[in-house]
UniProtKB/TrEMBL annotation:
This is Membrane protein. It comes from Microbacterium testaceum. The chain crosses the membrane at residues 12-36, 42-60, 67-84, 115-134, 140-160. Residues 28-150 form the Integral membrane bound transporter domain. GO terms for molecular function: oxidoreductase activity, acting on metal ions.
Length: 344
């Protein structure tokens, strides 16, 4: 409950983003105040503040939402104001009408809120005349344009490094999961240790999802970005690496679940199981190597030779363990194919 009610984030927004928002707000106020005579340019300042987003693509999206919302809201407020005046009940009515019209038009949540806010502000702060309505629309367009220009001109954001960090975390966690599974096959385990093993393996999914989300944010930050350049190639390689190892994440979780379900105290004595454990250690080595090479990490392991060089060949396991061994071998074979394809 404490986390759900928190108004704080885990990480601060970049200080540059805060500075750009402040600069855009001030610039929009000054420019709109110079170009559009009349009341203080509140609409321009708010538009600029909302338009400056972590990526240029998001800025354009927010600019369109903001502009369309203001136009619709101003039109609604003007019609109601001309017909009914500007008493309090008309202001409240305009908010309800604005929300219903936005819902009927299937507007996005951001645009829907903007329609209602604009209608309220026009009736509460001004007079419902055509000239006043046009001026507020112009203010908004000026503010949105200023916000986009500031976001493009002042070091447009590139979110590729955070994507690389998330991908490196996935590589480390995937290799660690394979190592933990190998160690569980080499020594007797308690029920509690098996529970922990399965829980840690399942945590690979949110790590993988975080990497995918970071790569998507990186791609979004490069849209319409004049600084994209070589970053597009890097991001494409990261996406390829994620796509390549996503099945390995699934296989690691599946192997861990198979061990959890089929474990008994004698499994560590099975020669075929010990051989599988050795192959899992080698696979973990090669996963670390693959992520070090493909993400450009400056790690010694990136220069090492792959350890999992050929498929595992074992003797027929004992009848008590053949189901578990067969399941592990199938998944291990798929892991081997993924690593081998990467070397090719």
């Amino acid at each position: 409950m404490r986390e759900s009610l928190s108004f704080r984030t885990k990480r601060r927004a970049p200080l540059l983003q805060v500075a750009k928002s402040a600069i855009a707000t001030v610039a929009a106020w000054l420019v709109a105040g110079w170009l559009v005579q009349g009341p203080p340019p509140i609409f321009a300042a708010i538009a600029a503040l909302l338009v400056v987003q972590p990526s240029i693509n998001q800025s354009l999206t927010r600019a369109v939402e903001r502009s369309v919302g203001v136009v619709v809201g101003v039109v609604i407020a003007s019609l109601l104001g001309i017909a009914l005046g500007s008493p309090t009940w008309v202001i409240l009515l305009s908010a309800g009408v604005a929300l219903v019209i936005a819902w009927a038009l299937r507007m996005s949540p951001g645009a829907t809120n903007q329609v209602a806010i604009s209608a309220i502000l026009v009736l509460a702060l001004g007079t419902a005349t055509p000239n006043y309505a046009v001026d507020r629309v112009l203010e908004t367009l000026i503010g949105a344009l200023v916000g986009i220009v500031v976001n493009v001109a002042l070091v447009p954001p590139v979110l590729v490094p955070p994507a690389r960090e998330k991908l490196e975390v996935l590589g480390r966690e995937l290799a660690a999961a394979l190592e933990r599974l190998a160690e569980a096959l080499e020594a007797p385990q308690t029920p509690a240790s098996l529970e922990e093993l399965l829980l840690e393996a399942r945590l690979l999914r949110p790590v993988r999802d975080a990497a995918a989300a970071a790569i998507a944010d990186g791609a979004d930050s490069l849209s319409l970005n004049p600084r994209s350049g070589r970053h597009r190639t890097d991001l494409r390689a990261m996406q390829d690496l994620l796509d390549r190892f996503t099945p390995v994440v699934t296989q690691a979780i599946g192997m861990t679940r198979a061990v959890y379900d089929g474990y008994d105290a004698t499994i560590a004595e099975e020669p075929s199981v010990r051989a599988i454990a050795e192959q899992l250690h080698r696979a973990a080595h090669d996963v670390r190597r693959a992520f070090a090479v493909d993400t450009g990490a400056d790690l010694p392991i990136a220069t090492e030779e792959p350890a999992l060089t050929r498929p595992l060949q074992i003797r027929t396991p004992s009848p008590a363990h053949w189901v578990l061994v067969g399941s592990l071998l199938m998944d291990l074979h798929r892991v081997h194919e993924t690593l081998r394809d990467g070397e090719g």
